[in-house]
């Protein structure tokens, strides 16, 4: 099971981060968050990072070609030798096409796109439970229903429409994100072992 290239999809709070960490530990895959990559490239002062910083400083979105360029550089790192999990990219069909073209140029491809599916109402139940259990003093500032509502709107309007693109290519597998963590992990193991 070497060199697996996975894309994780799913709404905020669906468990992508938890499952990605388990897959990192189990298979040696590296979770790649485009937000983290962008911040690291800016901090390191790489050529792409400087371009991205200039764009972000103007309040604009970083163009797809810069993001794909950062991913292209990042997946060459030794910690990606056993494969990677993309989390947060692609978000649009043009990004998916650019990612596919970049990987093809490297002789690579996406092996699986996994959607952790959780209904919105369950995500709200989860966040309300987390807030209640943590107590008022221990809650992250963005851990609230209003922030979740905004993030879900963005997900449904901008990211979820990419799912049919991967579905039409036979790459999309849906996993029930409401299952216990161990059960979701078993499903993911089955998907990875089959691709």
Description of the structure:
- With 195 residues, this protein is an alpha/beta fold.
- It is built from nine helices and five strands.
- A five-stranded parallel β-sheet has the order 2-3-1-4-5.
- Its EC number is 2.7.4.3.
Structure summarized in a few sentences:
It catalyses: AMP + ATP = 2 ADP. With 195 residues, the chain is an alpha/beta fold. It is built from nine helices and five strands.
Strand fraction: 5-15%
Largest sheet features: 5 strands, parallel
In the sheet with the most strands, the strands line up as 2-3-1-4-5
- Proportion of residues in helical segments: 55-70%
Low-confidence stretches: none
Instruction: Provide the CATH top-level class.
Output: Alpha Beta
CATH topology: Rossmann fold
| Total number of distinct structural domains | 1
Architecture per CATH nomenclature, i.e. the level-2 architecture: 3-Layer(aba) Sandwich
- The ordered H/E elements are EHEHHHEHEHHHEH
| Computed Rg | 17 Å
Q: Termini separation (Å)?
A: 9 Å
What is the arithmetic mean of pLDDT?
Answer: 88
Q: How many alpha or pi helices?
A: 9
Oligomer: single chain
């Amino acid at each position: 099971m070497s060199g697996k290239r996975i894309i994780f999809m799913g709404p905020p709070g669906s468990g992508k981060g938890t499952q990605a960490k388990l897959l990192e530990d189990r298979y040696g895959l590296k979770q790649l968050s485009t937000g983290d990559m962008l911040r690291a490239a800016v901090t390191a002062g790489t050529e792409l990072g400087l371009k991205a910083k200039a764009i972000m400083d103007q309040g604009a979105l970083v163009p797809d070609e810069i993001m794909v360029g950062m991913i292209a550089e990042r997946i060459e790192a030794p910690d990606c030798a056993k494969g990677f999990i993309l989390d947060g990219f692609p978000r649009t069909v043009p990004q998916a096409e650019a990612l596919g073209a970049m990987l093809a140029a490297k002789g690579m491809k996406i092996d699986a796109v996994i959607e952790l599916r959780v209904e919105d109402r369950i995500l709200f139940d989860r966040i309300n439970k987390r807030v209640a259990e943590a107590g008022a003093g221990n809650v992250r500032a963005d851990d609230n229903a209003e922030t979740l509502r905004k993030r879900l709107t963005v997900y449904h309007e901008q990211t979820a429409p990419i799912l049919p693109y991967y579905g039409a290519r036979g790459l999309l597998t849906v996993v029930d994100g409401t299952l216990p963590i161990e059960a979701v992990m078993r499903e993911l193991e089955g998907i990875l072992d089959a691709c």
